[in-house]
Amino acid sequence: MEGIGLLSLAIWVPILAGLLILITGGDKNADGQRTLALLGSILGFAVTLPLWTGFDAGTAAMQFEELAHWVPMFKINYHLGVDGISMPFILLNSFITILVVLAGWEVVKERVGQYMAAFLIQSGILNGVFAALDGLLFYVLFEAMLIPLYLIIGMWGGPNRVYAALKFFLYTLLGSLLMLVSLLYLYFQSGGSFEILVWHKVPLAMTTQILLFIAFFFGFAVKVPMWPVHTWLPDAHVEAPTGGSVILAAITLKVGAYGFLRFALPIAPDASHELAGAMIALSLVAVVYIGLVALAQVDMKKLIAYSSIAHMGFVTLGFFIFNPLGMEGGLIQMISHGFVAAAMFLCVGVMYDRVHSRQIADYGGVANRMPMFAAFFMLFSMANVGLPATSGFVGEFMVILGAVKVNFWWAFLAASTLIIGASYTLWMYKRVVFGAVANPQVEAMQDINGREFIVLALLAISVLGIGLYPLPLTEVMHTSVDNLLAHVSHSKLVP
């Protein structure tokens, strides 16, 4: 399967579809633009399926590699490849893009083509981020993905959309400037190479490793986002349109966590061990403290945004306890959170489209008017809590098991999310869905239509599928995770 350009197709099919939409005219052709966006997103997902079916889970080597000279003078290459760590995220991204297009089908009525095109272009760029094996190519795509999301929030967001979009852009851009410096340092240190896999082998002094790790931390921690550089996320979620929140939570946050695995840990393994205690402390603060902050929220989107920060704390905790259970659990948590967070934001979007409010107090008794929706919302709320048989349980349980092997109290604090998460999620669900009908707007609500049912049903199948049978995912990741842990366990200090 190598050498036929599957990764290029995964990147350029959605981008070209998005550009085609932009040249098909204004809102007079909105229906045609919607159809073209759906076809483009489905084709974009279809070309990623051979990555899964043709993947060899028995090797940690990069697969489906593509290499072409981009800027030969500086040895900058268009170099793509995936392993068991990166490949699942390309499929997740391409799948979620289809759902975002469907979710915005009737909701977005102005600048429809630009809206759909932004998501398709964003999808292609994100696939490139996960596939890039050239450091400068990664950085260009890493920064480029800010642009469509900035436009999505700034053009189709809420009343404070410009403030939220600017805050999102500045936080993430400034966070990655130090990372650019570290990439340039590695270029010269490796003898003039931007190849990420070459950087993995460059011996470095401890002080250098620590400085590089800190630079990578600022680049990736903002994206995760880790406490205390998380404050842009709730504002971005609250002001973003539903599709923007879905992509932001389901995919964009994963880029930060992925960056730790592709850059910080293998390039600076000794510093990673040295600073692991600080990373674990920040992760546990996110799990416990941010979970308690979520309890105080009265806006549903803001509550789910803080919930996302807490769940991503599990991911970084799993990475920095340096055992297979923890790291694989963190990766599965990333995939699961992609589905669950997308579903939760889409459920809020379904209600917002009918009532035009995100305030918990404006609801009550939704189950009386929307029983089918209430059943889906219940499933996703249980997955957000981490109920066994849902995808939310698998990753958290593996991380807790991995943490127990290292430090019981770390595992104990991490496990507190099962109580805190249940508290804020079920409290929200009870007040919104159960009880008597609260007001005339809720009384007038209609249950989900066929389009909404398809979107929520696909997510429900994904959440239950991973929860009941996670083995295919763990099998794909296992060899790559073992290889990374073996690499990180060996010192790269200059002799």
Structure, explained:
The structure is a single chain. By secondary structure, the chain is mostly helical. It contains 24 helices and two strands.
Offer a quick outline of the entry.
This protein is mostly helical and 495 residues long.
Q: In percent, how helical is the residue content? A: over 70%
Give the N-terminus to C-terminus distance in angstroms: 40 Å
Largest sheet: 2 strands, antiparallel
Radius of gyration, in Å, reads 22 Å
Shape: globular
Uncertain residue segments: none
Overall structural class, as computed from helix and strand content, comes to mainly alpha
Adjacency order of strands in the biggest sheet:
1-2
Quaternary structure of the protein: single chain
Name the average pLDDT: 86
Number of strands: 2
Strand content: under 5%
Order of helical and strand elements: HHHEEHHHHHHHHHHHHHHHHHHHHH
Compute the number of helices: 24
Topology:
Blueprint: H1 6-22, H2 30-46, H3 49-53, E1 63-71, E2 76-82, H4 87-103, H5 112-131, H6 135-144, H7 146-156, H8 161-189, H9 196-199, H10 206-221, H11 232-239, H12 242-267, H13 269-274, H14 276-295, H15 300-319, H16 324-355, H17 366-369, H18 371-385, H19 391-404, H20 408-415, H21 417-433, H22 440-443, H23 450-468, H24 471-489
Antiparallel strand pairs: 1-2
Helix pairs in contact: 1-2, 1-5, 2-4, 2-5, 4-5, 4-12, 4-16, 5-6, 5-7, 5-12, 6-8, 7-8, 8-10, 8-11, 10-12, 11-15, 12-15, 12-16, 14-15, 14-21, 15-16, 15-19, 15-21, 16-18, 16-19, 16-23, 16-24, 18-21, 18-23, 19-20, 19-23
